[in-house]
């Protein structure tokens, strides 16, 4: 982990902001046949892949109310309370994203407005595997409900015994989501994109997944199914100055590093002293981590950068466009004004990334891989369409009609002009 | 044009809502080599394709201030005034889409908020060819400026003499956009995606185009460049009841039909009488249209549907999910509540689609091909990222920290827990 760079010049930034290239095209040969098979053969194909990949033999894909009840009973009461607190905070923050209708009179008699309408059919993919990501179910299910999506389905893989993790079942139940299907992987993406006998097709698919799931989402997206955002490995950048607490910074970097060997970790500090102290803390804290090997692997790809000049530091961080950005400084409020590109920003020494990952209220589904330059994280916006409406009175049409006629004519679209002319003539007989 | 359907059963809806399938994959063989060539050879490749496709020989791609001045002088004063009126209305409506920052205290000491920040580098593609779409420049340039995008570039093809349509130059000047490049087609998309010596790379590409441009946008999107939305042929659905004015409905359908032979036109009426009257009006109005042949070709693919039951009619229209939906009825206000899927909705007999295409204030860049089920039209939202921020006080972390610890542990992420534990321990020595 000796990727130390002192005041790197701009000619080095391209390299320093680079993410590991991943060739999804290479996965198409594996993913495409599964998509096609499910498209053609529905549940039968889905069950075949469940047997093949999850080693489970399932007759019925839909989780039964009894299974939800049984699972819920297994969850520790303290954990339930924690999830409820998280739910309340996430709900409060996401409810504040709802938009009222504002009718705007743009010209006299011309009324325009926008209305947010929930996407009717949405699919939430919740990975199983090494960790049961019930937090992701909170992050997707809560805005989906606030948006008013009428049909919310969840796909998540079962274990070999055909059981879904109880905490996921509890969380679904807490959110009032009852359509939970025991299917993961590419077969889940295919089922949600095309629909099967038991799994309804959706218009938009949300949720993280491994490289096959990501490739599957990209492929169905090309066919017109919307997806939340393009995905890449998770990332954290920390800006730290003399007012940071190195042990905290180290803990934050490690929390990102434990996600996966491909996790991206970047520390930008104003002095090399800070970096030395953080590194010492990393070595110390690393010892007791269960996912130590993963964290070490990720740290090999990490970057420790000294930027003595604050503005240059933030120029670099904006160029990097991190999924998560922690500003470890007593001066975080002021510094945060310099942020142009980031998914989510954590201010000060007591705002660890894990707060936002679980319970502060912000969403943890965020743009990675530099996509924060053009993409936002998941919000209520992600679950609605904003439909525009307009209503012109006769006078309204008289007011703007002549302009429309001139512009349509100048674009060579005579029938566009006629649609106005005919109406105006009928009003001025 | 005798595609008449009387109260079609739901088993027919799939067919009736179907758009012409278009195989973009087949275009990849043509488009991909151009993308790669521009990526590798920059301006040199761009100029080669300009010579090949636009038959222009250009030394400099950037439009000069003198050219803008000369072009602006050529535009008729009345047309300038019309464009100014349109600009004012579009600006008023889009300014209303700006969102203030609301700081939400989700738990005591836990403050979360969202801030909209303009995407720094955006590219607007404005087609040339048969019609100079200066209206599209208004629809993309105005929200880009409101969003605060710092670098806005426009690519639009020149004619064989290397000249850009004067009205496009005037509109750009009106919006304060000075980086206009004389390049169209796939080479323009490639230049904006990868950057060349003279054209800067952007993070998001907006704008309509022919099938090659659309395929080019999809291909660079796969590589991580954001695009406004997937594209398809333009569409109009009209709902008409006894209170409609058939001549107006006919004019609206024709205004859509003249766009292109692949334009989609659907009329859903409550009686077959209305359809007969509208068809008679279409025959009458068609005679005098300069783009008559195009309109006739589009009308061959059109659908005239009688739905006697209002709710069934809107169920069908929601299933169709039209780019433009006109509710030609005195009862439009009430009926508009039934709209779940549409790009933009026009209420009553005096709100023709062409009003929204040019000057009412709403955006005309809208989801086609049924994408309105999951996608919104272009708005200020399209030009910003909404970055989330959070700041926890020491007390805030104490309040939610224990929940974060429990949840992180349940997901098997010990380092996530540690980032909280370490901080809480430091506060409770």
Walk me through the structure.
The structure is a homodimer of 429-residue chains. With 429 residues, chain A is of the alpha/beta class. Chain A has three domains: 4-20 and 233-361, 3-Layer(aba) Sandwich (Rossmann fold); 24-227, Nitrogenase molybdenum iron protein domain (Rossmann fold, 3-Layer(aba) Sandwich); 393-427, Single alpha-helices involved in coiled-coils or other helix-helix interfaces. Helix content of chain A is 46%, strand content 16%. Chain A contains 16 helices and 14 strands. In chain A, strands 1-11-10-9-12-13 form a six-stranded parallel β-sheet, with helices on both faces. A five-stranded parallel β-sheet of chain A has the order 6-5-4-7-8, sandwiched between helices. Chain A has a three-stranded antiparallel β-sheet with strand order 2-3-14. In chain A, helix 5 links the parallel strand 4 (121-125) and strand 5 (151-156). In chain A, helix 3 (65-74) crosses helix 6, helix 7 runs parallel beside helix 8 and helix 15 (394-410) runs antiparallel to helix 16 (414-427). Chain A is globular. In chain A, 59% of the residues are buried. The model of chain A has no long low-confidence stretch (mean pLDDT 95). Chains A and B meet through helix 4, strand 2, strand 3, helix 9 and strand 13 of A and helix 4, strand 2, strand 3, helix 9 and strand 13 of B. Strand 13 of chain A pairs parallel with strand 14 (384-392) of chain B, so a sheet runs across the interface.
